[in-house]
Amino acid sequence: MLGESFPLRLEKIYRDLNEIINKYNPDAMSIEELFFNNNAKTAINVAQARGVILMTARINSLDIFEYTPLQVKQAVTGYGRADKIQVQRMVKMILNEEKLPKLDDITDSMAIAICHAHSAKFSQKL
């Protein structure tokens, strides 16, 4: 994926996500709100990728739920200002796993899913 043009990378996100949705047939998708301080170029690229993700969810008729980083940390650790290590430890404990995947993004997505599971009845669809 590295070295590919950005539009090709967006297409890969679309195709891979469609494959996952077709394989597992979920009812909903939870996603974290964007928050950026400094790098506008990164923010724009992430926002474009997020747009592809949201569009793919809608094309597949999924309900979409959005959570802030503070909400995710609160739901997983009980503390909205928890650091990444605290969140990872709690995800590991909640899911009763020996170890977690090496990629932080995967652990983050697990935390967002846990947040949704804890708060879905109170969430508003996008």
Task: Give an overview in words.
By secondary structure, this protein is mainly α. The protein folds into 2 domains: 1-66, Ribonuclease H-like superfamily/Ribonuclease H (Nucleotidyltransferase, domain 5, 2-Layer Sandwich); 68-121, no CATH class. The protein is 60% helix and 8% strand. It is built from 5 helices and 2 strands, in the order H-E-H-E-H-H-H. The chain has a two-stranded parallel sheet with strand order 1-2. Helix 1 (6-24) packs parallel to helix 2 and helix 3 (69-77) crosses helix 5. The radius of gyration is 15 Å and the shape is globular.
Give the number of helices: 5
Order of helices and strands: HEHEHHH
Query: What Rg, in angstroms, do the CA atoms define?
Result: 15 Å
Look up the CATH topology of the largest domain: Nucleotidyltransferase, domain 5
Oligomer: single chain
Main sheet strand line-up: 1-2
Total domains, how many? Answer: 2
CATH architecture label of the largest domain: 2-Layer Sandwich
Structural class: mainly alpha
Overall mean pLDDT score?
Answer: 90
- First-last Cα distance: 30 Å
Considering the protein shown, what is the CATH homologous superfamily of the largest domain? Ribonuclease H-like superfamily/Ribonuclease H
Largest sheet, if any?
Answer: 2 strands, parallel
The rough form would be described as globular
Beta-strand percentage? 5-15%
Residues in helix, %: 55-70%
Residue stretches low in confidence (pLDDT < 50, at least 5 long) are: none
Q: What's the total count of β strands?
A: 2
